[in-house]
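The passage that follows is intended for readers who have already worked through the single-chain material. We present the inputs for a multi-component assembly, then the predicted structure in tokenized form, and finally a short commentary. You are encouraged to pause after the input and sketch how you expect the pieces to fit together before reading on.
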Amino acid sequence: MILFLCYITTGLLLLIRDCNEFLSFCHKHIFLEVFFAMAGEVPNLAESKLTALVVDDNFVNQSIHHKLLDRLGIKNDVVCNGQEAVDVHCSGRNYDLILMDMDMPIMNGIQATKRLREMGIESKIAGVTTRAEEEEVKEFMEAGLNDFQEKPLTISKLVSILRNLDFYVQA
Amino acid sequence: MNTVVAQLQRQFQDYLVSLYQQGFLDNQFTELRKLQDEGTPDFVAEVVSLFFDDCSKLINTMSRSLERPENVDFKQVDSGVHQLKGSSSSVGARRVKNVCISFKECCDVQNREGCLRCLQQVDYEYKMLKTKLQDLFNLEQRILQAGGMIPQVNIS
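Having made your guess, compare it with the prediction:
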């Protein structure tokens, strides 16, 4: 009887552990309806646990990228150049996703990406730039990017980034 | 009242479609409009306002760089054109973006006269777009004040 109770208790504990792991998995991923993406609708999701950093010197792009992330329920901060991106990480902040522009004053996207990787930052970094020449993209990728998208960013491009970086699971 | 709202909505729709047909706007503007919601009802107006501020500043900077024929800083002009092309592309300002493409070509071959022409053209285009979009936003306000909703316009 005692052995039987121990067995049941162990089983319940394992189940609770698995549930917690499952919930943790859910928190880090966004469940998206393929229907919404295909219908061109903007998925307005419940707030996820993902965080992101927008790194761009252009106020127009800052505003748009911030809003795009907001619409997907991703809390995000905005900085104006690569140096600020490095500084914010030095202050102890960390993000799941970084949207990194290439051309910025003080420290550009390539330099910032290299620096962040040297610091041991393992966040997923997606390069976003208007520059699409093969050599330029290659140099940017080799700096330590996980993904790349050509500007201008749209909801579908951002969803594509999230999909490529395994941040969401299709429902 | 309903007739007034319907008329205004129709006017808005026709005007918006004409802006696409005349090449002032492209699909990226549609993407911007999709992001506007009840929580941020002025999102598009705010972003385009930032864009027009950007245009004004960049055009002034580039104008100064191109002022003296013997001392043109083409690197600075190129940087300004790149910024302007990026912003115009992000808001769907198609004509402005297209002028930037020609502008970049003139920069690349250090053609000062060509750059000056492009500068004049980009100044004209952004001011024209500013007027057009102001008219569009005014129509939006009139619809809302008349108790109507801004129509979703399908641009194919």
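Commentary: Helices of chain B lie at 2-21, 27-35, 43-66, 74-91, 94-108, 112-145. The interface with chain A takes residues 28, 31-32, 34-35, 37, 40, 43, 46-47, 50-51, 53-54, 82-83, 85-87, 89-92 of chain B (CB under 8 Å). How closely did your sketch match?
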